Amino acid sequence: MKHSPLRLDLLVIPGLLVLVACGAPQQEERNNPVIDTVAVAPPAPVSARPVHWGYGEEAGPATWGSLSPVYALCGNGQGQSPIALTSGGTSSSPTWRFNYGNTRFAVAHHEHVEDLVDNGHTIQVTVEEGSTLTLNGTNYTLKQFHVHTPSEHTLDGKNLPMEVHMVHQDSAGHFAVVGVLVKEGKANANFAKLVANLPAAKGDTVTVAGEQLDLNMHLPAQEKAYHYVGSLTTPPCSEGVQWLVLQDMITLSKEQIEAFSSRVGPNNRPTQPLNTRTVSTVGLTGSMQ
Ligand SMILES: [Zn+2]
Q1: DSSP code, position 216
Q2: Of the residues 121, 165, 168, 174, which is catalytic?
C-alpha cells in the first residue's frame, strides 16, 4: 500500500482534524519527510497533552469538545461513537475475518491520555503484534483492548454491564475497533487472568510473565456484527473509525465484572446522534469456533 505523507493524527480524520486541530507548526510538519511506519502514534501536539478529561460533571463528556481545540470533534463531530443499536437486521456477505492467536500481555490502569491511541480512564491490555482483522481486503493489526463499564453502545435502548474494545490499526494508521458486549453469566477464563493481574494503583502497568491469553476466547460464537463508521469514544474523538459491534455477547461472572467496574466505572460516553450514517449487519468468518 502506498504510504500517505500525512501524520497518523491527520490520517485518522483527513481534512477535519487539519481544520480544527492544526496550527502553523503542524502545517510545517506536514512538509517534512514521510513517516514510513506508524505502528505507534507520533507524539500528540503539545496542546493535546495534559488536558484533563473524565466522566463526571467536571470535565465530563458534555464538555470534552470545549476543553481543547484538539478535542473539538467531541463536541461538533457528525460521525461520533458510541451509538444506540437496534437488534435484528439481515446479514450481508462475509467480508470480515479474524485471525487471532495466543499472546503475551501487559495490563495497565490508565489515568490520563498519553497519546492519540491510548484511552485514559480504563484498564487496557497491550498484546503482541500478530493478531489481525481483515476488512474488505485490508489487514488491521490488533494493538490493545480495554474495557468500559457499563457498555458504551446500547442495544435496544439498554446498556450492558460491560463492553470490551479491541483496537486495531492498518499500516496507514486507520482504526478499526471491535466492540464485544458483555453480559453477566459464567466466569471467563481469559478475564480471570486479567483480574488476577490488575494493577495495584492508577497509572501502574503489570507486565505478566509466563501467562498467555487466547484472544479467540474474547469472541462469541455468532459471526454477525453491526457495522458503521464512527469515532474514538474518548478525546480526541477522531472520526473515520470502522466499528464492528458483535451481535452475540460474551459472559463474565458478576464478580469479574465488578472487578473492572470497581476500578474504572462508570467510564461510558453517552450515545451520540447517528445523523446521516447507516448501520449495517455484516457476516463474519474466522477462527472463533
Ligand atoms: Zn473504548
Answers
A1: G
A2: 121
